[in-house]
Design a protein that fits this description.
Layout lengths: L15 H9 L2 H18 L7 H21 L5 H4 L4 H4 L4 H19 L3 H32 L9 H13 L4 E9 L1 H8 L1 H16 L7 E6 L2 E6 L5 H16 L2 E2 L5 E2 L2 E9 L6 H18 L10 H13 L3 E10 L5 E11 L5 E2 L1 H4 L5 H24 L6 E4 L10 H11 L8 E6 L8 H12 L3 E7 L16 E4 L1 H4 L5 H14 L5 E5 L4 H9 L4 E3 L7 E2 H4 L25
Parallel strand pairs: 8-10, 10-11, 11-12, 12-13, 13-14, 14-15
Antiparallel strand pairs: 1-3, 1-6, 2-3, 4-5, 7-8, 7-15, 7-16, 8-9
Length: 576
C-alpha cells in the first residue's frame, strides 16, 4: 500500500475519534518491534550496547512514555519525551526515535492482516499524530529561538517585553533594573568573542542566583540586561540590591588559559507606576539613571532632584542666558603662564547662586547634556572671537560627551559655528573626552575623532586613570594629550602612587602624548611632577575657573604661591 499526498489533505483538528483509534492500536506488538528496532539502530550507530537488562528497562520506559503521549493526544515538547539514556541520546534525537516506534506500529498493523479500509484509517491517524508532533516540536524549537538568548540562555528582549506587557495588563507594580557591563568591549577585543560570551554567561548565572523564582532577568542586547522585580521596593532596598548586583559582578571570572578577568556593572532603576504610566517612560527613567551611574561610578545613584525639573531649569537657563562658561588655566610650570584654558559650564540659578556641574550634570538625560554642550561650545566661539578682537589669541579646550559624536549632524553644527565666527580656527580649539565615558571600539566615535584631528583640532583624553583604558588601547583614538586624573595625582607622595604617575609619564612620551597633570594644589606637587617629566598642570595652585572677562587680566601665578581669591565659589574636586 502506498501513502500519497491525499493523506495530508485530511489533517484537520485532532478529535476524540482519533484518540479512540490510537487507543485500539496493537501497542504490545508495536512495542516489541520498536524494542528490537532500537537495539538494531544503536548497533548500527556504532555505540557499545548496554547489558540487555538495562537496555530493556530503559527502552520500555521510553516507549511507554511515548505511548502515553501519543494516546492522550498531548502536543509534547522535546523535553517531555527526550530520551534520557546517555548511550542513546548521543546518537539520536527524540524525533528519530519517535519515527522508529511509529514505523514499528505500521509493521504491527500489517502483520495483523486488517481489512484495507481499517488499515488505511489506522495509518492515517498515525501519520496525523506524527505530523502534529513534528509541528509541535518545530514550534517549540522556534519558540526557543524567538524568545531565548542563544549566548546566556536567558529570555531575550522580545520575551522580556512580553513579560512586562503581562505585568502592565494586570496592573502589577514592579521595579526594573537596567544593567550595563563596564569594560566588556575590552574583554571581547583582548580575548576574543568566545571569551566574551563566557563572561556574559558567567555574569548572567550570578545574577540569576540573586533572584527569586517570581523575579525576571533577560538579556536586552549586547552587554545590557534587564531585571524585573514584580513587587514594590523601598528606595533603600533598591540601592542595597544594586550594590549586591555590582558586588556579585566584580568577582574575577576565569577564562581558561587567559586566567581571571574582572568586569563591573552600572545600574539604573525605575518603579512602575510611581515613575511612569507606561513601559516606555519607566524604561527611559531607568536608562537615565544608568547614565548617571556611569557618570558617577556608583552602583546606582539616588535621585538628585527630578529629571524633568532639571531639564526644564536648564532649558530656561539657556533661553535666559543663565548658562555661563568659566575658564581654568592650564599652565606650564616654567614661567607659570597659561598655554591653554579649559571651558567649564556654570548654571546661574534664579536666585543668582552659581551652581557647578557636579550639582546638576548627573541629573540630566543624554539629550539635555548634548544641548548644554552645544551651548558651551557656542559661547566658547563667541569668547575666542572677542579675545581676538582685543588682540589676544587664547586657545580653549572644550569638554564633550563622546556620545555626542554619535548624534546626527554634530560635525555640521561645528562647521556652522566656524561659518558664523570666522575668526575662530581649528587650532584655537581642542576637545576633551572623559576616559571613563569613552566608548572604545565604536567606529563612528573613532571616525569623528579622526575627523577632528585631521581638521586641525587637538583631542585630549581627560581624567586618565579613572576609567578602564590601557596605553595600548589609546592607539585607537587620535589623541594628542593625556590629562592624568586628580585621583592619581593626590597620591604622589606614596610609593605606589609615585610609581604609577611616573609610569604614565614615561610611557606617554614615546607614544607621542603630551601629559597634563590635574589637581595640582601646591608647589611641591608641581616641582615633583616637573622633575618626572610632566611640566604642564592644572588645578588650585594655578587658579580656579574664572569668567571670560577675567582671562585677559589674569597675570599668572607668583612663584610658589597661590592667590587666596582663587579659591572662591568652588570646592576642591569640582574642577581640575
Amino acid at each position: 500500500m502506498s501513502i500519497n499526498a491525499e493523506f495530508f489533505t485530511h489533517l484537520d483538528e485532532w478529535t476524540d475519534y482519533d484518540n479512540k483509534i490510537m487507543a485500539e492500536l496493537p501497542w504490545e506488538k508495536a512495542l516489541e518491534y520498536a524494542h528490537n528496532a532500537l537495539r538494531e539502530w544503536i548497533g548500527i550507530a556504532g555505540a557499545s550496547v548496554q547489558k540487555v537488562g538495562e537496555l530493556e528497562t530503559q527502552s520500555a520506559a521510553y516507549l511507554n512514555r511515548l505511548r502515553e503521549v501519543l494516546v492522550t493526544g498531548q502536543r509534547p515538547s522535546v523535553d517531555q519525551i527526550q530520551w534520557r539514556s546517555d548511550n542513546l541520546n548521543s546518537h539520536g534525537t527524540a524525533r528519530e526515535m519517535r519515527w522508529i516506534i511509529l514505523g514499528s506500529m505500521a509493521d504491527a498493523l500489517f502483520d495483523q492482516g486488517l481489512p484495507a479500509e481499517q488499515l488505511q484509517e489506522c495509518i492515517r491517524t498515525i501519520i496525523k499524530r506524527a505530523a502534529y508532533d513534528e509541528m509541535a516540536e518545530d514550534g517549540n524549537q522556534f519558540a526557543r529561538l524567538a524568545f531565548q538568548d542563544a549566548v546566556t540562555g536567558l529570555p531575550n528582549r522580545l520575551a522580556t517585553e512580553r513579560y512586562v506587557e503581562t505585568l502592565l495588563e494586570h496592573g502589577k507594580s514592579f521595579v526594573v533594573f537596567y544593567l550595563d557591563m563596564d569594560g566588556f568591549k575590552m574583554v571581547n577585543d583582548t580575548y576574543g568573542h568566545a571569551a566574551g560570551d563566557q563572561v556574559l554567561r558567567a555574569v548572567a548565572d550570578r545574577w540569576k542566583n540573586l533572584l527569586r523564582r517570581t523575579d525576571w532577568i533577560g538579556r536586552w542586547g549586547g552587554d545590557e540586561f534587564l531585571m524585573v522585580i514584580p513587587h514594590t521596593l523601598s528606595s533603600d532596598a533598591i540601592l542595597r540590591f544594586a550594590v549586591r548586583i555590582r558586588q556579585t559582578s566584580e568577582d574575577a571570572i576565569t577564562l581558561g588559559r587567559f586566567g581571571g578577568v574582572n568586569v563591573s556593572v552600572s545600574c539604573g532603576y525605575a518603579c512602575f507606576p510611581e515613575e511612569g504610566d507606561s513601559w516606555e517612560k519607566v524604561l527611559d527613567r531607568a536608562d537615565r539613571r544608568l547614565y548617571r551611574a556611569k557618570l558617577s561610578g556608583l552602583s546606582a545613584v539616588p535621585d538628585i532632584g527630578d529629571f524633568g525639573d532639571w531639564r526644564q531649569r536648564i532649558e530656561e537657563a539657556l533661553k535666559e542666558s543663565r548658562i555661563e562658561v568659566h575658564y581654568q588655566p592650564i599652565v606650564r610650570s616654567k614661567g607659570a603662564t597659561a598655554e591653554q584654558w579649559e571651558a567649564l559650564a556654570r548654571y546661574r540659578d534664579t536666585d543668582g547662586q552659581l551652581r557647578l556641574p557636579t550639582e546638576f550634570l548627573a541629573s540630566l538625560a543624554p539629550d539635555a547634556v548634548a544641548m548644554l554642550d552645544r551651548a558651551v561650545m557656542r559661547q566658547v566661539f563667541l569668547d575666542v572671537t572677542r579675545w581676538k578682537q582685543k588682540g589676544r589669541r587664547v586657545r580653549v579646550s572644550i569638554n564633550i560627551d563622546p556620545w555626542d559624536l554619535l548624534s546626527e549632524g554634530w560635525a555640521d553644527q561645528l562647521a556652522a559655528l566656524h561659518e558664523e565666527f570666522t575668526e575662530v580656527h581649528p587650532e584655537d580649539i581642542s576637545f576633551e573626552i572623559r576616559e571613563s565615558l569613552t566608548p572604545f571600539g565604536i567606529r563612528r566615535v573613532v571616525e569623528s575623532l579622526v575627523y577632528l584631528s585631521r581638521s586641525g583640532y587637538q583631542v585630549a583624553l581627560d581624567d586618565f586613570g579613572s576609567g578602564m583604558s590601557s596605553l595600548n588601547r589609546l592607539q585607537e583614538l587620535p589623541i594628542s594629550t593625556i590629562k592624568i586624573d586628580a585621583s592619581l595625582i593626590k597620591n604622589w607622595e606614596e610609593d605606589q602612587g609615585r610609581i604609577l604617575i611616573q609610569s604614565v609619564i614615561g610611557l606617554s612620551g614615546p607614544m607621542g602624548f603630551r601629559v597634563v597633570a590635574e589637581g595640582i594644589e601646591n608647589s611641591s606637587q608641581r616641582d615633583a611632577l616637573a622633575s618626572w617629566g610632566c611640566d604642564t598642570g592644572q588645578g588650585w595652585f594655578y587658579g580656579a575657573a574664572m569668567p571670560a572677562d577675567d582671562v585677559l587680566t589674569w597675570a599668572g601665578v607668583p612663584a610658589g604661591e597661590v592667590a587666596e581669591d582663587s579659591k572662591t565659589n568652588v570646592s576642591p574636586g569640582d574642577d581640575a
